[in-house]
Design goal:
Layout: H1 2-47, H2 51-81, H3 85-114, H4 116-144, H5 148-177, H6 181-205, H7 214-240, H8 242-279
């Protein structure tokens, strides 16, 4: 009778062991899957070229990371009950590495969804280009009404002003992509000098343009002011460099942490698979 009871309890204990092992393996597999999906979604958020896509991928990453946290919390007591010290150590190692990963990834995603470099690009190639073109076109109208005597001088000043604006446009693209503060400062000084050149040329035009063409010159000045205001906004956005910084962190800092977390999870799954095999012997 006692032997029979022992056999019953022994079988019950085996079933409980196998149940917990299976659940541990399931959680470890899901933990690994969710972590991989979170890392992938985070990378997609960094590489996305629209605000909507960045936010969507960042949301996917955050959702997967929360599942990673819940799976880890559920797996810990199971491994403790099974007294699997090696597996517990691996889970603890993962937890430490994951805490570092989580903090870094939060920074990356916060930067990525701001998209300041993308917004600067949109301003440069949209409203900025439009204002520069309006400036050019308005000066062209002014030139057509100038007397032949002053035409050569006016054409020279117009060409000088337009060239300064176009050179400023050329500098905006590398400024937006530049990660180095000193290099950006150098470009900003060059743009400031070009701005003064354009303004001085337009000021000189006022002395040569007849009264009938003054409204056209006022339109050109308004376009120049708008262009310069857009340039200031572009520089401010570019200086924040959120896309450049998030990409830098993703390419240089994040891979090592991702690999360390992945290594711990693979080792944990391998050990759990072996525990299941040992239990069947």
């Amino acid at each position: 009778m006692i032997a029979a009871l022992g056999l019953v309890f022994g079988c019950s204990g085996c079933r409980n062991f196998f149940t917990q092992i299976d659940e541990s393996r399931r959680l470890a597999a899901d933990l690994h899957l969710q972590f991989t999906q979170a890392a992938d979604a985070s990378n997609r958020a960094v590489m996305a070229d629209t605000d909507e896509m960045s936010s969507a991928f960042a949301g996917d990453a955050e959702k997967a990371l929360k599942i990673v946290e819940s799976d880890t919390a559920a797996l810990l007591p199971l491994l403790s009950n099974l007294k699997l010290s090696n597996e517990l150590q691996l889970l603890e190692d993962f937890g430490k590495r994951f805490a570092e990963y989580r903090e870094l990834d939060r920074t990356i995603l916060t930067l990525a969804v701001e998209n300041t470099n993308l917004e600067a690009q949109r301003l440069a190639f949209g409203p900025g280009r439009e204002a520069a073109d309006n400036f050019r076109d308005s000066l062209g109208v002014v030139a057509s009404g100038v007397s032949p005597r002053d035409r050569c001088a006016v054409d020279g000043l117009i060409a000088k002003a337009i060239l300064a604006v176009r050179e400023t446009q050329v500098l905006l693209a590398p400024h937006i992509a530049e990660p180095n503060d000193d290099a950006m400062s150098g470009m900003e000084r060059e743009m400031a000098s070009l701005t003064k050149t354009a303004q001085a040329a337009v000021t000189s035009l006022t002395q040569l343009v007849p009264g009938a063409e003054r409204p056209g010159l006022a339109t050109a000045l308004s376009a120049l002011d708008r262009f310069q205001d857009i340039c200031r906004r572009i520089v401010a956005l570019s200086r924040r460099n959120t896309n450049v910084r998030s990409l830098e962190l993703s390419l240089r800092t994040k891979p090592a942490l991702t690999a360390a977390c992945d290594q711990s999870l693979r080792a944990l799954q391998d050990l759990l698979a072996k525990e299941n095999i040992k239990a069947t012997r």
